[in-house]
Structures are given as C-alpha cells and as structure tokens.
Write a structure and sequence with these properties.
By secondary structure, the chain is an alpha+beta fold. The chain is built from 12 helices and 16 strands.
Length: 504
C-alpha cells in the first residue's frame, strides 16, 4: 500500500512539473536540460547572525539589479532548481514593484516595518524600504545611449541576439527627439553600426542589419563604445553604454580586473555602463554583475520577450534618471531589544562601518521611483539561542547603551549624493518598539514571501521552517493590483520549484 501511495505522489509531482514547464515565458527552450557547466557565478557566503553586543551597527550599499530573479526563472523553466550562487535574494525582492509612499520634501523616503519572521516563530523580521522620488521622463534631459552588442557566434541562438533585436524595437518606439542611439557591434573586431542616430526608421534599419558570427573581442568593443559615447555626449543628459552579451569575453582585454578598472575610470567622465545578460550555457553572471557595479549601472537578465518589455518599457527609463548616487545605509540596533541580527542578502554589498562616511567609497545608485527593500532577521533579547562571538573594532560614538531610548528599536541613517555632487547628504529615521505588528502590510507579506522562496532555493542554513506551501499561501494573500501579472507568475515559479523538489 505504501509503495502505491509513493508512486501516485511522484506521478502527480511529475505531472505538475510538466505543466509548469509548458513554455511559460514566450519561447521554447532549445535544451532538454539546464546546461550550466560553462556558466560562472560569484560565490555567496550568507551573512551570519551578529550579536548586537559585538557590533550594533550594520552597513551596506543599495542594489537595484534584478538579473538574479529572471535567471532563476530561466533555470526553473528548464526543469532544474537554480545554481545556489545564482540566487541573490536582494535582487529577487527588488524585481517587483511595491506600493510605497513617495518622499514629500526629500529625495528618499524611509519606510520600516517589524513583525514575526514567517519561517521562524522565535525570530522577528525587520523590513527597511527606501523609495526614491519620481521624476518625469518626458521632462528629463536627453539620453545618449550606446548599445554595445555582442554579435559573436555564441549569440546566434534564438534567446540571445534575436531576442535582443526584438527588445530594441520596443525601446525605439518610445524615443524622444532629444534622444540619441548608437550601435556598436563586436565579434573579432569592433565596428560602429550607427553613430548618434535620432531617426526611428534609420535606427530600426541598423538593428535589422545585426547578425551573429565570429569570435568575441569584448574589450576592443568597450573601448570603441566609450569613444562613441564621448563624441555624442549630452551635457546634463544621461550618457550610458548598455552592454548586451552572454558574457563570453575571450579575446583582447579579457582580464576581468583590467576591465573593471577601465570601466571605473570611464564613469568619472560621466559615461555610465549597464549590462543586459542573455542566453544559456556560457553566461558569465559574475563578470556581468561586476562590470555593471563598476560602471554605476544596473544588471538585467533577459530570458523572454516579456522580460524585455519589463526592462525596456517599464524599468530602463527609471535607471536613466538618477535621483541619488552612492546610496549607503547604516542601521544601529538597540541592544535593549535586539540580541542578534542578520542581514538577508546583500552579501556582496556589505560595507565596513567607516565606509559609511567615506564619500570616496562607491555604492549603488537609485533612479526615478526606485524601491530598495532589505530585511533583517532578528533574535530578540531574552532568547535562549546562542550566537558565536565575532571580533569587531570598537565604535566610540553609539546612540544606544542598553539603558537609554528604551522606546526605540533602531536608528537608520542614509547617505547619498545628488547626481552631480561629490559630497553626501544624510537622512535619519528612528524606529520604535511600539511599531511591531501582528498584521503586516501587503508589501511586507509579499516581499518576505520572496525572501522565504530564496532561502529555500539556496537551501539556506537559516531557512528553519520555510516551505513552498507556506510561500504560496502567503503570496496569494498579497497579490495586490498586479497590473503586469509578475506576482501571479511568482506563485507559478514557486509551484514549479515545489514540483521539481518533489521529483528530485
């Protein structure tokens, strides 16, 4: 009898998995499996719990990249759980739109919320959300966009260059008279396909001429793209190179450190760099994320025409209008209430305490209407849990000593610069113990569901009681308006991951 039950259970799981994989993203995969042997990802060591008595202050940089989520979706679509190091929880959270209040009399609004951790009833969960002010795209200065396009042989697959060309057509329809588009192609040698075009028909014709073939010479292409960007530079406008590739840099300046240094130097000229990743099999995710970080840009991964629409029609314009650059957060927890804390995600964005006031220290930017959400898992005072001690340099000036400001839970400090400024501004916000709620907001519920999903995909040592059913149940209560269906699609992804887990 038991064998029959197990057989039926596996049969149902297999059926669910097959249904979930029926081309949900607009194109059929070219593989029957997920080939990741040639793909590279930066190793992620999850942030540990830190005793407030050892270090009461947490410091990190913002991140508005979203590549991890769409890349995870691609892997699940092939019927496999994602590579663990491809799962960056902060990018999963920030993939979605959230209905948060915009700032009224400042550039960034700070929203906080404190409730129970859904996957651990003995812990609390603290949400810190930032919302940048919204700017009018129509009233913003012109855009000087140089698309640096990999047309090497590896880009010939349908989910690479053909998909990129379809995405570019979407963008062209929304160009203004003040905008300029350039196309630089590289494959063996780099060449300018279009230099500062402003006529839509001319730009479309240039896009049609793009074909894939040849070896990759990414570095020479990058050098040429910066020359084109500088020649078409718009004072006060958005001057940006958008690198579109599967990330396979194997000719020329293939040394990643040299590329990073080159791009970091060039951003001082006012030309920034963002990255669009495409395809399967040789994706250099670690390199692409790093190049975007060094270029004051954003890293997206395009896995379907639907994702292209999201990026090119709904997101790219926001990233073009910088509201605040080098945005850093520093949170001091009150030891009277917090025994230990853990920043979830943002592992490659963690900063040292002294970096917060160092205006030379690079950090992430926030564009028009951008939302950045971070979560801390909290072990409250009075818990019987033990957290290992860690060595930190002593901090002389602290707000809390465990006996003062007993009504406060934490102090949040944010430093950022105006787009053209070199000196940072400071915003501060206090949170209070009385703000704890048993009925968190829709934003808190959905975003923390995404976090729980990320913990499961990473098989995190901190996942505790997390499970797929719980993620689905909570997310279904927080769908909101969901204009573009991204949250409903999230639930489908969780169902797919659940089916794969049952199968495996």
């Amino acid at each position: 009898m038991m064998k029959k039950i197990v057989f039926v259970y596996v049969l149902i799981a297999s059926f669910l998995l097959t249904a979930c994989m029926a081309d949900p993203y607009g194109y059929m995969p070219e593989y029957d499996y997920m080939p990741v042997s040639g793909e590279t990802y930066a190793e992620i060591q999850e942030n540990p719990f830190i005793q407030t008595g050892d270090m009461p202050v947490s410091t990190f940089s913002t991140d508005v990249d979203t590549a991890s989520y769409s890349n995870i979706r691609r892997m699940l679509g092939y019927g496999d759980l994602p590579v663990i190091d491809a799962v960056r929880i902060e990018e999963m959270i920030n993939y979605f739109d959230y209905d948060l209040d915009a700032p009224i009399d400042q550039d960034i609004n700070v929203i906080t919320e404190l409730s129970k951790a859904p996957w651990n009833e003995n812990h609390d969960l603290f949400m810190v959300a930032l919302k940048a002010k919204e700017l009018s795209f129509e009233e913003s200065n012109g855009m000087n966009l140089v698309f640096l396009i990999d047309v090497s042989g590896s880009m010939s697959e349908s989910n690479k260059l053909p998909l990129l060309k379809d995405a570019l057509y979407l963008l062209i329809e929304n160009l203004r008279p003040t905008d300029r588009i350039s196309l630089v192609a590289y494959a063996g040698t780099a060449r300018v396909i279009l230099d500062g075009g402003d006529d839509k028909d001319e730009i479309k014709d240039a896009i049609r001429r793009l074909t894939a073939g040849g070896s990759t010479a990414g570095a020479s292409g990058i050098e040429l793209a910066y020359e084109v960007a500088q020649n078409n530079f718009i004072e006060g406008g958005n001057n940006r190179i958008i690198l579109a590739s599967d990330g396979d840099f194997n000719v020329g300046m293939s040394n990643v450190e040299a590329l990073e240094e080159f791009i970091s130097e060039k951003k001082e000229t006012g030309v920034f760099l963002s990255v669009l990743g495409f395809g399967t099999g040789n994706l250099r995710d670690d390199v692409m994320e790093s190049l975007a970080d060094h270029g004051n840009g954003v890293y997206f991964y395009i896995d379907s025409i639907q994702e292209a629409e999201k990026v090119f029609l709904h997101q790219l314009s926001a990233t073009m209008m910088t509201v605040a650059k080098d945005v850093k957060l520093q949170i001091e927890f009150n030891p009277a209430h917090v025994y230990a804390y853990r920043l979830i995600g943002y592992e490659n964005r963690v900063l040292d305490y002294e970096d917060f006031e160092d205006d030379e220290k690079d950090a992430g930017d926030m564009g028009s209407g951008h939302v950045v959400i971070a979560f801390y898992e909290i072990i409250p005072v009075g818990s019987n849990e033990e957290v290992s001690n860690k060595d930190f340099d002593a901090i002389e000036e602290l707000r809390y000593n465990g006996e003062n400001y007993l009504d406060e839970f934490s102090m949040i400090s944010i430093r950022y610069k105006d787009p053209e400024a070199e000196n940072s501004k400071l915003i501060e916000a206090k949170t209070f113990v009385s703000a704890y709620t048993e009925t968190p907001s829709e934003t808190f519920i959905f975003a923390s569901s995404v976090v729980e999903f990320g913990l499961l995909l990473r098989n995190s040592e901190y996942k505790q009681d997390a499970n797929y059913n719980h993620v689905i149940e909570r997310a279904e209560t927080a769908l909101g308006e969901d204009v573009y269906g991204y949250r409903a699609e999230f639930i489908e992804l969780v169902e797919t991951a659940r089916a794969i887990s049952l199968r495996d």
